[in-house]
Amino acid sequence: MTRPVGPKRATSWDVARASGFSRSTVNEILNGRGDRFPEATRARVLKAVDDLSYAPSPAARGLRTGQGSTVVVLVPAGTLPPAFQDSIVELQAVVSARGFHVLVQFGVADMDTIVSDLRKLAPVAIVNYNVLAPDAAAQLRQTGAVVVPDSGASEVDEFDAYVGATLVRALVERAGRRRLLFARPDGAPDYSSGMGRFRGASRAAQELGLSHPELVEIPLEPGAAAEVLEPVLEKRPPVAIACQVDVVALAVLAACRQLKVSVPEQAAIIGVDATPEGQLWFPRLTTLRIDQADVGRGLGANLLGAIDRVEPGPSAAGFPQLRLVEGDTA
Q1: Rounded-to-integer distance, Cα 319 and Cα 324, Å
Q2: What is the bridge-based pairing of β-strands 322-325 and 286-290?
Q3: Torsion on CA atoms 148, 153, 159, 162, rounded to nearest 10
Q4: Closest CA to 233 of 257, 256, 202, 205
Q5: What are the tens digits of pLDDT across the range 162-180?
Q6: How far apart are CA 24 and CA 39, in angstroms?
Q7: DSSP conformational letter for 36
Q8: pLDDT averaged over the chain?
Q9: What residues have CB less than 8 Å from 57, skipping those under 6 apart?
Q10: Tag placement on the chain: N or C end, fewer CB within 10 Å?
């Protein structure tokens, strides 16, 4: 039986022939060591890469570097929004098309153990969903692994600040200028986005000429949430409450019902994640939906660019889209 023959995959030899340079020159440029070559040389090599749709073989890279084709996706342990898996699915689709294999790992251990385990695994790349501290990410880069986002947690933190600022602006547009609260889960070990979103909310409040938002930690239980909120709500109504995530907003709504605080007249509330539970509640929760699929595609593109070393390094590809889901709480 004759085996079907598919299109031949371009090799670095093909890039060398097309560009007119030696294979060693091509490899130096593609492996991020092209600074010593003229700009025109680098441009011709990269044009040949584009023309041939050349992509380095993960298997060949593993033989050369001692690293395999595994991409580890590090996600926070604890509660994650239901749509978070859309980010992982899209990321996996992007990198799997290039022959890499995705392994999802929860950050359940201490930082030293996580770094030690990853060193043993020797992945080609690590996608850091706000698990690795900057120094831990730097240690892993020294092994030759690519870590995205490039700046450790800072790109994620800036996105969270953007989300927090959007929460405040949406509240002002819908409820007017009120005393501003920012609600996060009590203790918040499973919600690492909190302080980044609080900083963004504070920044937006300053830009809008509002007083600095008051940070309130809300227990995720109606009775306890009511105990925390009662003295806060009595100070000076009405209030606008920006909630870090939908589950906090639901705890706030349950507390308001128990305290007989009218929503949105006395307390305007907005959450993040657009969870089904928030849309089943009455009054229906006003919330922000993050395009998690866009998050995954952006991280996948950054990761491949960093692995190929055809760009200076991974960088934020613009913030994912935020969409307001209209409800009745703001």
Answers
A1: 15
A2: antiparallel
A3: -160
A4: 256
A5: 999 999 999 999 999 999 9
A6: 17
A7: T
A8: 83
A9: 9, 99
A10: N
Residues in CB range of 100: below 8 A, 6 or more apart: 58, 69, 70, 71, 124, 125
Q: What angle do CA 279, 266, 212 make, to 5 degrees?
A: 95
39-52 and 23-30 helices, crossing angle to 10°: 90
**Which of the listed ranges 3-12, 120-129, 151-160, 302-311 does the model predict with the highest average pLDDT?**
120-129
Measured over the CA atoms of residue 246, residue 319, residue 171 and residue 213, the dihedral's sign is positive
Nearest one of 273, 281, 224, 214 to 250, comparing CA atoms: 281
123, 103 Cβ separation under 8 angstroms: yes
14: amino acid identity, one letter = D
CA nearest neighbour of 208 among 166, 243, 265: 166
| Three-state DSSP string of 123-147 | CCEEEECCCCCHHHHHHHHCCCCEE
pTM confidence score: 0.66
Query: 200, 197, 195, 204: which is closest to 172 by C-alpha?
Result: 204
Instruction: Say which residue the tokens 């491949």 belong to.
Output: 304
Residue 102's nearest CA partner among 69, 130, 131, 132 is 69
Percent composition of the chain: helix, strand, coil (DSSP 3-state, to 5): 45, 15, 35
CA angle 140, 145, 148 (to 5 degrees): 85
228-to-117, 251, 279, 283 alpha-carbon distances in Å: 41, 11, 25, 21
pLDDT at 142: 86
Residue where the block lists tokens 């006003």: 286
Give the integer Cα–Cα distance in Å for 315 and 299. Answer: 9
DSSP, res 318: -
Quick one: average pLDDT of 142-170?
80
pLDDT of amino acid 189: 54
